[in-house]
Every structure is written in structure tokens, then in C-alpha cells.
Amino acid sequence: MKNLQVLLVDDEDEFINTLAERMELRGFNVQTAINGEEAMDRLARGLPDIVFLDVMMPGIGGLDILKQIKALYKNLPVILLTGRSSTEDGIKGMRLGALDYLVKPIDIEELIRKIEENVN
Fold first, then answer.
1. DSSP structure class, residue 89
2. Closest Cα partner for 31 from 14, 49, 55?
3. Is the peptide bond before 77 cis (omega within 30 degrees of 0)?
4. Going residue by residue through the chain (120 aa), what tens digit of pLDDT does each one get?
5. Can you point out the beta strands (E) in the chain?
6. Measured between alpha carbons, how far is 97 from 99 in angstroms, rounded to an integer?
7. Using CA atoms in the order 78, 28, 11, 38, what is the torsion angle rounded to 10 degrees?
8. Which residues contact 64 (CB under 8 A, 6 or more apart)?
């Protein structure tokens, strides 16, 4: 599982930077994006092995970004990140093509388990 390319999309700087650091220490190659537009730009330049996408972001929300990702990159694995109060959005996202969702705060071991389950 080492050297997998991961894209983390979340508008919370401290959260995304800390999570990226923790994943990099475990051997993942991590890119970050702080909004949907930046995420789509990164995807246009090269696809990662998996995307972790926050549901609640200002501007274009995570579910709308998920729709765009699935329209352009149907087979790209996407797992949603959601707050406790928005688990319904996680379930809605799965209906739109997300593989799963994780509730914040994220347990790094659970996140890695999701990668192992969903990336060949």
C-alpha cells in the first residue's frame, strides 16, 4: 500500500495538513486541496489512487464535487469525510458513487483500512 497517491480535499487547513503529515509518515504520497475547484484542477493534472473529500465546504460543496468527479472519472475511488451532524450526507454521497464515508474526527487506522479495502 506504500507509495499510493492520495488526494485530500478539505477546507480546514489544520485538519488537512495534520492528516497529510500522518499519512506521509506511513508512506503515502499525499496532495491536498482546500476547495472543490482546486481538487478538480489537481485531478485534471493527474489522477490519484483515491480521493478523500469533505462534504461540508464553502462554495461548491462536497456532494457537487463528487458528482463532477464521477462524471469525469467514473472509476476513481472517493471516500467522503463528514462531521457527526452530516452522516446523512455521507449516505447520500454513497448513492452518488462514493465508496464510503468517514466521520470526523478521523481515526488514521480506520482511514488506512478504507484505503486497503478500496484500492487494488
1. H
2. 49
3. no
4. 568 999 999 999 999 999 999 999 999 999 999 999 999 999 999 999 999 999 988 888 899 999 999 999 999 999 999 876 667 888 888 899 999 999 888 899 999 999 999 887
5. 5-9, 29-33, 50-54, 78-82, 100-103
6. 6
7. -70
8. 36
Burial of 68 (0-12, 13-18, 19+ CB in 10 A): middle
pTM, to two decimals:
0.93
Distance CA(79)–CA(11), nearest Å, equals 16
Q: Which residues fall within 8 angstroms of residue 47, CB to CB, at 6 or more apart?
A: 5, 73, 76
Burial 12-32 (b: 16+ CB within 10 A, else e): eeebbeebbeebeeeebebbb
C-alpha cell read off for 21 = 503529515
Domains along the chain with CATH numbers: 5-104 (3.40.50.2300)
